[in-house]
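Could you show me just one protein sequence together with its fold in token form as a worked example?
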Amino acid sequence: MYCASARTPAACKITPPYNIRMIAYLIRRLLYALPILIGVNLLTFALFFVVNTPDDMARMQLGVKRVTPEAIVLWKQQHGYDKPLMINHAAAGAKQFTNTIFWQKSASMFVLDFGYSDDGRNISREIVTRMGPSLSIALPTFLAGLVIYVSFALLMTLFRATALDIAGVTLCVMLMSISGLFYIIGGQFLIGKLWHLVPVSGYGGGGFKFVVLPVVIGIIGGIGSSSRWYRAIFLEEIGRDYVRTARAKGLSELQVLFIHVLKNAMIPILTGVVVVIPLLFMGSLLTESFFGIPGLGSYTIDAINAQDFSVVRAMVFLGSLLYIAGLILTDISYTLVDPRVRLS
């Protein structure tokens, strides 16, 4: 690239196109994420196979009392836990590493092969099947909740230091002080049992009547903490110099809030959104369990209760993978909402 205004070739900076920089940035972030996933995988493997040995798993599944060594050996053979942990000295060549518990139970997760649960079901197929019910609850709750929380926070910011703002903050603190279980049980009793507007629990093919109550309760349960946090972000932005400049140009308070303040507050908002992204797929443990939703959240709870560590390991790894993906997507969105953020 020739730079006519530069006196020397060294003074001319060549900036790659945006698409090339974006691809290079994604590659770097993926390379950064790989050691994190490896660390999570190794830590999970150590917790489930070193601290809690396959013999311990067999005793818990068979029953601590009256379990024989022969029964333990048979159970380990049936579930593939009879191999060495990481190195198989009895094998030759590559089988020293591939014919091990680590390779077959943990390393295979990097290609999304989660194996089988203790009851013989394919975990990957169960995840795909149960992801739909989780999304049918989490996605409407996330999208509608984000609009409601931001709107309520903007309303309190618009009427800041007034009686309406004080009442809004008081309401947020009250809602934050109430346990999420109260919203679930109270909503089931009031709306489902007394008013008979929607079923108390169940899924029934994902009909609207089965998801409306969990979505409403999920939104109400998050109003307090989320709206108060967004209000703090908007109040911090409202005192900056660009806001005073916008007012000096004659813009109304609504225009200042929705055009300038909201736009410049998108980065902290996106940072908070990334925490929710894994939950969209993983589901809510309490909500799905109480409402009988056959999603990934209830799947995890059932696996913990049944001490099915194959499922628990898969869900821990999947949650880490989704969280890292959310971080990468958030960093990319920074460059879209704020041109001051550069890819580096």
About this structure: The chain has two domains: 25-111, 126-337. The chain is about 70% helix and 0% strand. The mean pLDDT is 86. The first helix runs from residue 18 to 51.
